[in-house]
Design goal:
Elements: H1 8-18, E1 29-30, E2 37-39, H2 43-62, E3 72-76, E4 81-82, E5 85-86, E6 89-92, E7 97-101, H3 103-108, H4 115-118, H5 121-140, H6 148-161, H7 165-172, H8 188-193, H9 195-208, H10 212-220
Parallel strand pairs: 2-3, 3-7
Antiparallel strand pairs: 1-2, 4-5, 6-7
The protein binds zinc ion.
Residues 1, 131, 135, 152, 155 line the site of zinc ion (ZN).
Length: 232
């Protein structure tokens, strides 16, 4: 999910206009073991979405963050647009629905050095599904849109966690992140200009914390705000 100043209601309207066919004819399939539903996906894509959702829940649970959400995921054959910017996927809290570009369009439109340019599309797709599922789970747990940096930190950690080690290294390599990351680097400017860098920084910061899960959990519970650590 990316964040801008558009109210959620406007975003919801834009999504509805972009997909007038949304409604009764959608063929929703349930993921095994939870109430998540997927539409617009080929069989292999459906499995990848469900894998991303399940792995996101497992990562959050491993850090003691409860995951009660059961949301819908819609695959489309173009990249979703949020605030005028093409994105791999987005979670719309107003409609409680995730939109994901399918793996083929993500690969076709991948900027150089981006997630889909650096690693195998199925792995990248699972990571993005996990990222957006995390937003849905955090919203359901009460973490609102005013905590967007915390949302993105946690979603980034989950996104990176579900990647195999070699894929994670391939994603991080061109970002040239140092061994240690200060919280002040996790700021809205970095996120706005370079979301991939923000994701890499969040992951490296999480890894460098004495208890990364405690830090993550405090953000999920709303007791820790990144902006309280920022110099501006
Ligand atoms: Zn996000």
């Amino acid at each position: 999910m990316r964040w801008c100043r558009l109210p959620a209601a406007i975003l919801a309207a834009a999504v509805a206009m972009a997909d007038p066919s949304a409604g009764a004819q959608d063929d929703w399939r349930r993921c095994p073991g939870n109430g998540w539903q997927v539409t617009g996906a080929a069989a292999g894509e459906y499995a990848l979405v469900c894998q991303g959702v399940a792995e996101a829940a497992a990562v959050l649970a491993s850090c003691g963050v409860p995951t009660v959400a059961a949301t819908r995921v819609r695959l489309i054959d173009e990249l979703p647009v949020h605030c005028g910017v093409k994105v791999w996927g987005l979670y719309d809290s107003a409609s409680d629905e995730i939109l994901l570009g399918d793996p083929a369009i993500c690969l076709a439109e991948a900027p150089e050095g981006s997630l889909f340019d650096r690693i195998a599309p199925p792995l990248a797709f699972v990571a993005i599904a996990a990222h957006e599922a995390t937003h849905a789970m955090l919203f359901a747990g009460g973490l609102g849109a005013d905590r967007h940096l915390e949302h993105e930190y946690i979603a980034a950690v989950v996104q990176m966690s579900v990647l195999p080690e070699a894929a994670r290294a391939a994603f991080l390599e061109p970002l040239n992140i140092g061994a240690s990351v200060a919280i002040s680097q996790l700021n809205p400017i970095i996120y706005g200009l370079h979301p991939d860098l923000f994701a890499g920084l969040a992951w490296r910061h999480f890894e460098g914390e004495p208890d990364g899960c405690a830090f993550l959990r405090a953000m999920a519970e709303g007791t820790l705000r990144i902006e309280d650590f920022l110099p501006f």
